[in-house]
Amino acid sequence: MDIRQRLLELQDEKYKQFSSGLIPGCDNMIGVRIPEVRKLAKEIARNNGEEYLQLSSLERCLFEEKMLYGIVIGYSKLPLQEKFIYLQKFIPFIDNWSINDTVCASFRIEDKEKKEWLDFLQPYLLSEQEYAIRFGVVMLLNRFIQKEYLQTLYEIFDKVLTKDYYAMMAVAWAVSICFAKFPEETKEYLKNCILDERTYRKAIQKACESYQVSTQDKQWLRCETRYGNKSLCMKE
Q1: Exposed (0-12), middle (13-18) or buried (19+): which is 12, by Cβ within 10 Å?
Q2: What are the tens digits of pLDDT across the range 71-123?
Q3: What's the CATH fold of domain 110-236?
Q4: How far is it, in rounded angstroms, from Cα 78 to Cα 100?
Q5: Which residues belong to CATH 1.25.40 in the chain?
Q6: Which end of the chain, N or C, is surrounded by fewer C-beta atoms within 10 Å?
Q7: How far apart, in whole angstroms, are the C-alpha atoms of residue 171 and residue 206?
Q8: 0.90 exceeded by the pTM?
């Protein structure tokens, strides 16, 4: 199967022009819509997924080829530890938020696998690499924002040290989702957390922008948090 030829046949120039403007530094995109990439990934994973993962190179590949590789890992029926081996190969090549977040959404995690996933993600969460951190955090926000994992997540967020924008925004995004789903628990976290000022402010901002957060809780965020601005304490 000539994967690149298959992707070229799915090329959409208008989609390329639109999407490339949203992804900084993405100069190797040909313009294949994500549902088409996913459809091809399912076909590969079903027919010859392991062979594809073994033989494919991530050097000098197209944006869509890189995304496809990561999605195939997620869709494959390989044992979890083998998936981790291919992820270790893949993660250093992530270089934009789109590939990162699309690939993260491709993994289903069984409850019985969560301990193994947390162990696997730890080195990436403590990495100095922007997209290694983002990968770890987005995997957490996709699959681990549940009551039994909240304290673990709060501890992880406090340990992530980064000035890189897309890693920092992932942490802020994750905190805002925690707040939307578990406002009382996350209020206590926000009162005592050690997030840096930039991440903290972004988390508050994203929670205030969320349709899942009540007006009352948005008022609390604006008035009672570490950087609360009393001028924002008004009825919406």
Answers
A1: middle
A2: 999 999 999 999 999 999 999 999 999 999 999 999 999 999 999 999 999 99
A3: 1.25.40
A4: 20
A5: 110-236
A6: C
A7: 11
A8: yes
